[in-house]
Amino acid sequence: MAVTRLADGVFQVRDTCNVYVLTRGRDAVLIDFGDGVVLDRLDELGVDRVTDVLVTHHHRDQVQGLARAVAHGARIWVPPSERDLFDRVDEHWRQREIYNYYDLRQDRFSLLESVPVTGTVPEYRTRRFGAFDVTTLPTPGHTLGSVSYLVDMDGRRLAFTGDLIYGPGKVWSMAALQWSYSAIEGAQATVLSLYELESRQPDLVLPAHGEPIADPGQAFALLETRLRAFTDSRRAKPWDPRDLYHRPFDVLSPHLLRNRTSFATSYALLSDTGNALLIDFGLDMIAGLPVGDDRSSRRPWLPSLSVLRKDFGVDRVEVAIPTHYHDDHVAGFNLLREVEGTRIWSERSVADVLAVPARYDLPCLWYDPIPVDRVLETGRPIRWHEHELTVYPLPGHTLYAVAIAFEVDGTRVVATGDQQTTTWLPGEEPEVLNLQYKNRFRIDDFVASAALYRELSPELMISGHWAPRRVDAEYLDLLEHKGAELARLHRELLPLSDVDFDAEGTGVWIRPYQATAAPGRPLALEVEARNPLSGREDVTVALVVPDGWRCDPPARSATVASRTHTTFEFEVVPPAEGTCRRARVGADLTVGRCRFGQQAEALVDVR
């Protein structure tokens, strides 16, 4: 394989991909690794050891020899959202759908065997690897989790871009740009990533396939033109990515902005101090939402923040507050904290779901814990610079949700998350109350939210997926009517006078839902149980454990008032020998003389 000197201390080794070698003295840092041929050429490169390998993306042609780097003693650094495709790829291979799938991401073009990694690269930040200061920039496109690396050497900025671009006007693979069936999300993401990279003003672009690009501006412009033509050939209306990239915010008032590019919609409350407070922040400037649900299928990034600084005078995103815990509303919180120093404020029940997601059996949990810096109490106003905000319970779409009320620029505003659509106009489609039973919807939740709106009397309602709407008495009447109608229908449909499990249809919950135990060591479990009957009854929960496990005690009982809950504590102990994945522990419910059976389970990894 050929070795080419590109500049003092910068070499290219051709392998299954271009491997770039940065040398200082007798040490080297590599960008990508290919099959590992570079280790056979160290003498030619004047290098004794490779200290670090920085990977741009998970595809096998970039890293198929990575085990050799580990054996050599190099530290391995990978993109944050793709880490599981390196050190847990065995699990990925076991779980990936093979039949009847519509997820077209090339995540099966991954390592065949897991390889240990040292850590993940810090996106948007500069860190020293070996003798080099390297800035990591998210550049989704070829894969959703791809990154590029920027290194300043001898007055020139080098950009190592993986497979974002092959050459002027060309990409290495069109197939890689189709993440979902019939979609072309990667093509759109590539254009947005080119804008991000262009704003960093690289002097030389070094792709994973193709030749060095000495005129990045011309190469980017030609690729943008061609990808936009391809995208427009598949759309009813032309796509204008430059407008989205440079003007992501709708100005609702001088101090309130709506991010029209994010999923879910986020809002920026501006202070005259130069600070910003974000209401929700999930997937910024999204090009599409892939069908998959593994960690590498979701990728937060921060392109809209540069516009906050440039166009709205924001010095810092100081605080972010979620309306509820769902991934599309909070996915970017940890990245905001790491990059901006943003503090996360959250209502108490939402905060616990964010901080300990494995405790809950709920949809739409974010993969990683999100620490909360300040817990907010409902109904108690909080001051943030010149603004005052109050959070109120808003169950319905999910039990773990709040309305956020504040006044800005003389307008009373309520942020409602995903509680209901806000698109209704007289004579058009009816408003939809966005209930999801698995989110722990209760029959009277939307009755309560309609009453809350009436009490708060907002002039503007902002939501997670629909346009802001001006609020009048007719709209409040509609929500009140819809909430009452929904409750009435559930009471007509369910046998609540006989057995009242509310709308959820279950009476037991085990926490944590996902847990890890060591062989032979006890694991504490908490079981919440409901009495669904019309009188005071004995409620008994018996745990069902795998063969060879112990449970202390095997069952617990308490006398519980009608339609109220109690909590029991148990310990389970797996065998002293052996490991397993997702062992099932069940909770069997009996109330009075009624056996309801094994209504809940928890999943335990033993390792």
Helix content: 10-25%
User: How many strand segments?
Assistant: 34
What is the strand content? Answer: 25-35%
Count of alpha and pi helical runs: 14
Average pLDDT rating:
97
Radius of gyration: 27 Å
What class do helices, strands and sheet pairing give?
Answer: alpha+beta
Q: Could you give the distance between the termini? A: 43 Å
For the biggest sheet, the summary is: 7 strands, mixed
Instruction: Choose one word for the global shape.
Output: globular
Instruction: Name the poorly predicted regions.
Output: none
**Looking across the biggest beta sheet, what order are the strands in?**
1-2-3-4-5-6-7
Characterize the structure shown.
- The chain is α+β, with helices and mostly antiparallel strands and 607 residues long.
- Helices cover 21% and strands 31% of the residues.
- The chain has 14 helices and 34 strands.
- It has a seven-stranded mixed sheet.
- A hairpin with an 8-residue loop joins strand 21 and strand 22.
- The radius of gyration is 27 Å and the shape is globular.
- The mean pLDDT is 97.
